[in-house]
């Protein structure tokens, strides 16, 4: 087995870089980043020293490494490779106060946080899912701050949620980001996601996908081919439409059209 690395910069606000790698022999020397690092190990065990303290992370945990703090990294099992996925996030993703907590306890074993990181990685590999990845990133932020007791509970904000819903409806078939909506509405992106999810019981990206599927169904029912329905309804391409159509309705767009 040889070392394998894939890295890219997705078009997702807040995410600077994504790294997927398998290392058989490589060991990272001590280094720093100017961004937050979220480390998920899929196979093997990784040991690292963060600010002179030794840690081990495995597939059941996530490591949150703060900016500007020295760390290294290598396989904890001699002769055994490790496979990892890493998100490098804007320095402002978490509040400054969270850095000291991350140095003291970088490894999180909360199952919901691990699942959230895995879901984010599943989304970020598809350019068509950039909006979903952005929403999932803000949900992950809230989960981490909640676990550390660093986020104060906020009351429901239905007026703000309604304004976001109106924006999403107006721009349903366009590429749009939570960051853009936050600027328009004068709210923090994470608060915007949280307010919407509380008010409607569904995350913003799932709401948008559902509305686009409704539009695509109407187009299919009047005879538009799936390729046209996908583009007109705001999907990235026909494959993007098909993936969500099958997930929600249990059939492909073509099968749905034939049965209508």
UniProtKB/TrEMBL annotation:
UniProt organism field: Agromyces albus
Record-given protein name: AraC family transcriptional regulator
Domain of life: Bacteria
Molecular function terms, GO-annotated: DNA-binding transcription factor activity; sequence-specific DNA binding
Keyword field: DNA-binding, Transcription, Transcription regulation
Record-annotated HTH araC/xylS-type domain positions: 162-259
PROSITE patterns xrefs: HTH_ARAC_FAMILY_2 (PS01124)
InterPro entries referenced in this protein's UniProt entry, alphabetically: AraC-bd, AraC_XylS_family_regulators, Homeodomain-like_sf, HTH-like, HTH_AraC
SUPFAM superfamilies: Homeodomain-like, Regulatory protein AraC
Pfam families: AraC_binding (PF02311), HTH_18 (PF12833)
Gene3D superfamilies on file: Homeodomain-like
